[in-house]
Amino acid sequence: MRHSTQCVLGIAVAALTLAAAAQAPIAYPAKGQSAQKQHKDEGECFAWARKTTGVDPATAANVPQETGPATGGGERARGAARGALGGAAIGAIAGDTGKGAGVGAVVGTMRGGREARQNQAARNQQAQAGSQQALSAYYRAYGSCMSGRGYTVS
Question: DSSP state, 95?
Fold first, then answer.
């Protein structure tokens, strides 16, 4: 189960990264600009877009993802506490409060772990979405600059 979740997350991140690369605009010389002129204009427009938006596409495209065990949010501890309370109540009815609390704590810890993994995936998704928005702003600025210099941008 855990391996399949990591595979799905990996595929989703790869797809989003490829989508970001696919959104980069391409400029075509519309007024007979030479290759040297286009290269110079592209460099200046890349620099202008980076300065204007504050986005460096080299770093914005490589958003670090949280990997490994999802820890640190307290979900497991809270789950264990809730499970122990519920288990103790059920155990009291069955005649063994301690055993019920123990089983409840284990089940609660597992549920808390699932919540931790879900929260980690949500944080990764949110970071990726923020990166996409930043890259989109950068590419719009670059496209505007190149259009202003007489290139067709698509």
Answer: T
Listed by start position, the domains of the chain span 2-153
> How many Cβ atoms from other residues are within 10 Å of residue 114's Cβ?
16
Give per-residue pLDDT as tens, 37-76: 999 999 999 999 999 999 888 887 676 666 665 566 676 6
Tokens of 143: 């496209």
CA distance 132 to 61: 8
Structure tokens at 106: 């284990």
74 phi, psi to nearest 5 deg: 80, 5
Other C-beta atoms closer than 10 Å to the C-beta of 78 total 15
Q: How far apart are CA 88 and CA 148, in angstroms?
A: 71
What is the spatial distance between Cα 137 and Cα 45, in angstroms, rounded to a whole number?
A: 13
Cα radius of gyration (the chain): 26
DSSP 41-89: HHHHHHHHHHHHH---HHHHS------SS--SSSHHHHHHHHHHHHHHH
User: CA angle 150-50-21, nearest 5°?
Assistant: 80
